[in-house]
Amino acid sequence: MPKEYLECGKIVTTHGVRGEVKVQPWCDGPEFLGQFGTLYLDAAGTRPVKVLSAKVAGNMSVLKLEGLDTPEEARNWRGRVLYLRRADVKLAPGDYFIQDLIGLRVIDAADPSVEYGVVEDVSSTGANDVYHIAREGRSTVLIPAIKQVIAGVDLEEGVMHITPLEGLFDED
């Protein structure tokens, strides 16, 4: 069962004199965090915190959180991980949370008896994401997250079906 609350960023420092914090986003980008009225301080969602304002500063989100009014108060929150509620995010069809992709078994779309490995990480390159496929006893293979390669994802079955590019999984 997918987690209801997902890590979305980490408070790395203070910003200004009003108690704002800079957040390193662990999501689609710094502007993404600005769409939430509430974030959470724990993975269970029992400690909500209201987002009073949000802006982008470079590759960081600058958030004004309820209860933080001075730089000294904000400094005490440095290093905290922030969470968002899955239900608060509207994903487009074919989009997935990275946390849901990690651990999926990667199998051949044409021959499901062929298993390539497990998704161990996802990198963003700008043009498209890249999935890191860990293979037991062999080197990790990077595959592009493009429709020509990714035939389908079944989160309930824990499987990603792929049509690999020629030579992608040739033996080392």
Automatic annotation (TrEMBL):
Record carries keyword Cytoplasm: yes
Subcellular localization(s) per the UniProt record: Cytoplasm
Domain RimM N-terminal: 8-87
Domain Ribosome maturation factor RimM PRC barrel: 99-167
Keywords: Chaperone, Cytoplasm, Ribosome biogenesis, rRNA processing
HAMAP family: Ribosome_mat_RimM
Family: Belongs to the RimM family.
Protein name: Ribosome maturation factor RimM
Organism (species): Hydrogenoanaerobacterium saccharovorans
Phylogenetic classification of the source organism: Bacteria, Bacillati, Bacillota, Clostridia, Eubacteriales
